[in-house]
Amino acid sequence: MYSLILYRVMTSPYARFVRVADGMIWDVTNSVLSRTTAWSDSDTTLTPDTTYIGGTPVTIPAALPAGDFDMLIYDAATPAAADAVLIGKRIMWSGNNLIGLPIDL
Question: 24, 72 in Cβ contact below 8 A?
Fold first, then answer.
């Protein structure tokens, strides 16, 4: 089950999750928050679904701890620090699902 859907045309989207309280980044490879994670370890691949919903489902990582996060969406085939943020949303995550509505950054 996904947490939300982004209705924007993207070809190679990915997300990064940054905790607001301390700037720690979700390390997808090791399933931990980290200050020193490599960019390539911090991208959550997203897959556009043009067949059924016409958008890109976003599934928040199941192990992401509860808290406020900046969810940053990029569109690049090979994730890199030079990629520009396409969409930024502040989310409140309970540890199981979103609380309230994401806020635009």
Answer: no
Question: Which two tokens mark 55?
Answer: 């958008």
Give the CA distances from residue 36 to residues 6, 32, 60, 88, in Å, rounded to whole numbers and listed in that order.
28, 11, 21, 21
Q: Which tokens is 59 given?
A: 């599934």
Give the number of domains in the chain: 1
**pTM: predicted TM-score of the whole model, two decimal places:** 0.93
Residue 55 structural domain: 4-104
pLDDT tens-digit series, residues 9-57 = 899 999 999 999 999 999 999 999 999 999 999 999 999 988 888 899 9
Query: Strand 67-75 relative to strand 13-19: parallel, antiparallel, unpaired?
Result: antiparallel
